[in-house]
Amino acid sequence: MAAHYQIGGSSSAAISASVEAGIRGGTLAPGDALPAVRALAAELAVSPATVAKAYQELRQRGLVVTAGRHGTRVRPRPPVAARRAGLLPPPLPGARDLSAGQPDPRLLPPLGPHLAGLAAEIGAPTGYAVSAVVPELADAARERLAADGVPAAEITVTGGALDGIERLLAAHLRPGDAVAVEDPGWANLLDLVAALGLRAIGVPVDDDGPTVPGVRAALAAGARALIVTSRAQNPTGAAVSADRAEELRTLLTGRSDLLLIEDDHAAELARVPLHPLAGATAAWAFVRSVSKPYGPDLRLAVLAGDEATVARVAGRARVGAGWVSTVLQCLVLALWRDPATADLVRWAGESYERRRDGLVDALAAHGLAAQGRTGINIWVPVADETMVVTALRDAGWSVAPGALNRIAAAPGVRITVSPLDEADIEPLAAAVARAARPATPGGFTA
């Protein structure tokens, strides 16, 4: 724990509030260890049960994590706004930032012309009574999903993929329930699961998606939900293959106690066929975001699923946020209908593929294996994440440590290819190879 922060309080609520204040103020940083239960109890003159309850409350809210002999530590990205950030070391001046996991802004479609066209056609302002999916958007979404084999008789929209997943988990699960997630997996999702008070069970991932033995083990451990990334898995680039989809459908068919969520966040950017699991379980949902192909500022995702599941999500939204802006829905519809935008998205997918495959091949030439079948990221297994991240930063490359993405998976680093130009690939590969296999100092001679 940070030596300059003193936890206080005489009740479990006061102790947990003190820890949260330290996290919010930045004096308790991600990864900092909290005192042992008995040590803090003695220091505060309270019972160990009081401190244990405070720590339990913090774990249920996703602020801390208990890691066996490593004790209780602040989570890498606790769900509370902090005044100071400390998750990733800032890139050195002039360094290339390959850590963000965002699409290349140069390849995103321009929104200005479509916004201008929308301004001329939007019509009269709507009122609070209009709180639904724009019918034309729903029709277009059903057509696009059906072309990929996803049944979409029931459909709604949410404020992005993570918003949809959060609403799905909150509608079906309760704090303490177990959720099977990919390991390594999407850092934001791991943080969300923790923030909802749910228990994450890691499922290993290979190039074809979540492994069947891993899913089977998670189900045996009591998983109430399974979240699968269809394509462009973050961080490994995995995509569910036809054979893997068939094996998983066989395993999941008939499960009435499991919520199946599929995340197709890359959508049109993924240059491999979709092999959906939709409908394998009684409760299921398929979520497709528009952020990766069309721009991160477009916070909209289409959510299809069984009737009860979609009704729960739409109903919960109705008593909360209400609805996703109809202006935003109309803008997305205009982008979908524009042939020039479709050509740009297709070209962007090809560009990412060239950069991703080029980097994987260049690393292989240096003797390093990497995963990156689809998407905008590659995953490089390494022995020591901190050493590799630091060495690359010193060499002018900022990459993301895999600790943010892992539960029990082996160490690795994530490299986002979207900021790369083709001329960067070989110098980067050489730098990664040097960082992953540093030269050992020579021995002494007489």
Structure notes:
The protein has 446 residues and is of the alpha/beta class. 39% of the residues lie in helices and 15% in strands. It contains 15 helices and 15 strands. It has helices spanning 12-25, 37-44, 48-60, 112-121, 135-147, 161-172, 187-195, 212-220, 242-252, 291-294, 307-318, 326-337, 339-365, 385-394, 425-436, and strands at residues 64-66, 72-74, 96-97, 155-158, 178-183, 199-206, 209-210, 223-229, 259-263, 283-289, 301-305, 377-381, 397-398, 400-401, 412-416. The strands form 4 sheets. An 8-stranded mixed β-sheet has the order 4-11-10-9-8-5-6-7, with helices on both faces. Strand 8, helix 9 (242-252) and strand 9 (259-263) form a beta-alpha-beta unit. Helix 1 (12-25) crosses helix 3 (48-60), helix 2 crosses helix 3 (48-60) and helix 13 (339-365) crosses helix 15. The longest helix is centred in the C-terminal third of the chain and has 27 residues, at 339-365. The protein is globular, with a radius of gyration of 23 Å. The two termini are 45 Å apart. The mean pLDDT is 89.
Describe the structure concisely for a colleague.
The chain has 446 residues and is an alpha/beta fold. The chain has helices at residues 12-25, 37-44, 48-60, 112-121, 135-147, 161-172, 187-195, 212-220, 242-252, 291-294, 307-318, 326-337, 339-365, 385-394, 425-436, and strands at 64-66, 72-74, 96-97, 155-158, 178-183, 199-206, 209-210, 223-229, 259-263, 283-289, 301-305, 377-381, 397-398, 400-401, 412-416.
